[in-house]
Amino acid sequence: MSTICVFGDSIVFGCGDTEQGGWVNRLRSHLDTSHDVYNYGVSGNSAPDLMLRMLGEISARKSDIVIIGIGINDSMYQDGQDIQESRDVKLFGVRLAIIASFVQKKFKSKLLFVGLTPVDESLTHPSVWMPHLHYTRKRVELFDREIKRVSRTYNSPFVPLLNTLNITTDLADGLHPNSSGHQKIAAAVHSVLIRAYPHDLGI
Questions:
Q1: 22 within 8 A of 41, measured Cβ to Cβ
Q2: Domain span holding position 158
Q3: Nearest-5° angle of CA 100, CA 105, CA 111?
Q4: CATH, residue 189
Q5: Is 178 domain-assigned?
Q6: 203 within domain boundaries
Q7: Predicted model pTM
Q8: Over the stretch 111-137, which tens digit does the pLDDT of each residue have?
Q9: Among 37, 144, 163, 199, which lies 20 to 30 A Cα-Cα from 84?
């Protein structure tokens, strides 16, 4: 039996999935019932938030596999914010590398990164729920590329999602996946997970 801990933001938490509560719940149903899957998604979280809370939360479990789904809020910017994309992406990468090193070296856990989901700029630039917030395709793509780079550096699998979800049919509000979107994420994560760590999953 393996213990799998999933850390991230509102998308990890399951926002937008009115049917089964998100892709982590759906992933749990894809796996053998002997595996424990814990959801540590917190709405609004970014990489700095994850760095602050992971020590206590990951210590509570002996995690065989840690899945990281973070970055959409790091890509967001607010009206009046000093935007320097190369700096922003580099800082995000540094934080993500700290998280990866922490997971692998301190807890000796296997690691998997989940890429970012696409956004519908007609609803997110500016966002319809908080007009001073902006999520753009360009920044999402830049931050997603950085997640993939860090995953290679730490020899960890990466789950690409930008071309997996359709912004017309798979998003609830332009940002969060709907039930269909969460199902696609669960299937994609499951596919990469069983290929990367078959021994841990008893396959």
A1: yes
A2: 3-196
A3: 45
A4: 3.40.50.1110
A5: yes
A6: no
A7: 0.97
A8: 999 999 999 999 999 999 999 999 999
A9: 163
